[in-house]
């Protein structure tokens, strides 16, 4: 797998609502046809973050684990393929929703292996960060590499955190501490870990999940507690709380420490695990995965933009994913919310611009930015400097594309201000928009087409990273076809 591949539908070309193809430059474009209020009920596929966490824990758990409601997409496929490469027996069924991880097989994590395992992880941040930590703890020789953009996404803070506690060598090969990552490890030794948290929370999450793996491979201890302290700021905090919950489901224990820390340490986590008789730090189990809350943001946004009413089922405020908090952002903008045991409904109302810190829910910034085009005044997004290190620069590139639609978007070091035209929607117009191989750019920008004619999204198959069926699902929800052109 080298370039994202999507099973995208080409249905609209023959539909009554579709227009004629408007581009013939050899590129695929998708255009959502403007129409009325979007109302309906939908359930997105499983959470990427939970699927990849559960896969890591299951791979180092005793016995068999069965994950249900899992996500099948490029980001989870590269994780599964990497785990198979090191010897895991993984069966995928029910269209990817069910994943069985059998741990009766022998993992190939011996430091004596002659050649490093070559693990291709495309552009999956969770996969490379979680595996770097887990495999350095398990021991063995690996080279983790991906697409060009992955080799520009930082991992230096994670490598620097591992060096002092690992027996062996680990280094990031590209400039500025970016992948490929080369590991030659005989496992971790005991000791406190310090990690930077200002670029990505995934480093900390990876180390937390790796701690029970390291304990399992230690000769002497059958129980071990590892302290992992964060130096300075910690971004995307809800993902760390999610990590703690997954670790606990698979048999570990996590305690949050906020006092008695050294200078510069802002928070620490004590991860405890006991190694069972099979020699694993985790215990296999049946594990149900929530629908993806970041994916849900597009459908809630569709209601907000169009003045409709959309229910996303399978997600409530009790969800483990912080991104369900996106509904509160929409409420702040004027939308109405309704929650019951079944899910959360957003009903669109006249939208007002807001000033909001989105550090905790940064994957929904692009969704919000598109909703903000239709508000009565400017929206200022703060606290998301880390969005520059994702699939693309999600501040600069986002501002560039929104400006093409007629809004006035200013870039700040930590976010952006989206100012809709003075004459509102009349001042917005269609454009051909770049997606920068960023699934969230494609999914969010396409929503502008719900109310603006001629919004054409380039290379929509990049949604395969986390949501291969996105445009098919959107089409079902909005009840009319979008139009494809080549
Ligand atoms: O831990 C996770 O599952 C994730 C953490 C976030 O990354 P950062 O911590 O880099 O913000 C988020 O953007 C990503 O999509 C998934
Ligand atoms: C940032 C993202 O992914 P990752 O960091 O896991 O590649 C994302 O899915 O928006």
Automatic annotation (TrEMBL):
Region Disordered, residue ranges: 1-27
Residues the record lists as binding 3-phosphoshikimate: 48-49, 53, 200-202, 236, 363, 390
Compartments (UniProt record): Cytoplasm
Domain Enolpyruvate transferase stretches: 35-474
SUPFAM superfamilies, per the entry: EPT/RTPC-like
EC supergroup of this enzyme: transferase
Residue numbers binding phosphoenolpyruvate: 48, 125, 153, 202, 394, 440, 465
Source taxon at top rank: Bacteria
Signal peptide, first to last residue: none
Biological classification of the source: Bacteria, Pseudomonadati, Planctomycetota, Planctomycetia, Pirellulales
Listed CDD domains: EPSP_synthase
TM stretches of this protein: none
EC annotation from Swiss-Prot or TrEMBL: 2.5.1.19
Family according to the record: Belongs to the EPSP synthase family.
Role played: Catalyzes the transfer of the enolpyruvyl moiety of phosphoenolpyruvate (PEP) to the 5-hydroxyl of shikimate-3-phosphate (S3P) to produce enolpyruvyl shikimate-3-phosphate and inorganic phosphate.
Active site residues of this protein: 363 (proton acceptor)
Protein name as catalogued: 3-phosphoshikimate 1-carboxyvinyltransferase
Subunit structure: Monomer.
One Pfam family per UniProt: EPSP_synthase
Catalysis performed (reactions): 3-phosphoshikimate + phosphoenolpyruvate = 5-O-(1-carboxyvinyl)-3-phosphoshikimate + phosphate
Biased composition, class Low complexity, residue ranges: 12-24
Gene3D superfamilies linked to this entry: Enolpyruvate transferase domain
Gene: aroA
């Amino acid at each position: 797998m080298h370039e994202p591949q999507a099973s995208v539908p080409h249905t609209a070309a023959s539909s009554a609502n579709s227009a004629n193809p408007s581009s013939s430059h050899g590129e695929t474009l998708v255009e959502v046809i403007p129409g009325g209020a979007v109302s309906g009920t939908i359930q997105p596929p499983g959470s990427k973050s939970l699927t990849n966490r559960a896969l890591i824990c299951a791979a180092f758990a005793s016995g068999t684990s069965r994950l249900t409601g899992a996500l099948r997409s490029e980001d989870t496929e590269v994780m599964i393929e990497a785990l198979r490469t090191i010897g895991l027996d993984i069966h995928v069924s029910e269209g990817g929703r069910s994943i069985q991880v059998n741990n009766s097989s022998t993992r190939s994590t011996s430091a004596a292996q002659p050649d490093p395992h070559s693990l291709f992880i495309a552009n999956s941040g969770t996969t490379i960060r979680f595996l770097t930590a887990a495999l350095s703890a398990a021991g063995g020789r690996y080279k983790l590499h991906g697409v060009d953009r992955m080799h520009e996404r930082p991992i230096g803070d994670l490598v620097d955190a591992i060096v002092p506690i690992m027996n062996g060598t680990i280094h990031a090969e590209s400039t500025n501490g970016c992948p490929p990552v080369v590991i030659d490890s005989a496992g971790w030794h005991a000791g406190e870990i310090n990690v930077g948290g200002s670029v990505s929370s995934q480093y900390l999450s990876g180390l937390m999940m790796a701690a029970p793996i390291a304990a399992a491979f230690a000769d002497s201890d059958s129980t071990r507690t590892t302290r992992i302290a964060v130096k300075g700021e910690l971004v995307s905090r809800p993902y760390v709380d999610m990590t703690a919950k997954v670790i606990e489901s698979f048999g570990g224990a996590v305690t949050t420490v906020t006092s008695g820390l050294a200078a510069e340490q802002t928070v620490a986590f004590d991860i405890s695990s006991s190694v069972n008789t099979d020699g694993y730090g985790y215990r296999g189990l049946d594990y149900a995965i929530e629908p993806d809350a970041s994916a849900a943001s597009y459908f809630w946004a569709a209601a907000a933009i169009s003045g409709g009413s959309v229910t996303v089922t399978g997600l409530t405020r009790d969800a483990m994913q912080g991104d369900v908090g996106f509904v509160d952002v929409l409420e702040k903008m004027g939308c109405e919310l309704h929650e019951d045991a079944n899910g959360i409904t957003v009903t669109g109302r006249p939208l007002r611009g807001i000033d909001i810190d989105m550090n905790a829910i940064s994957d929904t910034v692009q969704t919000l930015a598109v909703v903000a085009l239709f508000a009565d005044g400017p929206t200022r997004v703060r606290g998301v400097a880390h969005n520059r290190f994702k699939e693309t620069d999600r501040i600069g590139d986002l501002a560039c594309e929104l400006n093409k639609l007629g809004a006035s978007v200013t870039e700040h070091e930590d976010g952006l201000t989206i100012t809709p035209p003075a004459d509102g929607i009349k001042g917005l117009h269609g454009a051909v928009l770049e997606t920068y191989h960023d699934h969230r750019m494609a999914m969010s920008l396409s929503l502008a087409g719900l109310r603006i004619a001629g919004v054409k999204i380039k290379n929509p198959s990049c949604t395969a990273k986390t949501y291969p069926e996105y445009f098919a699902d959107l089409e079902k929800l909005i009840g009319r076809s979008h139009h494809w052109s080549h």
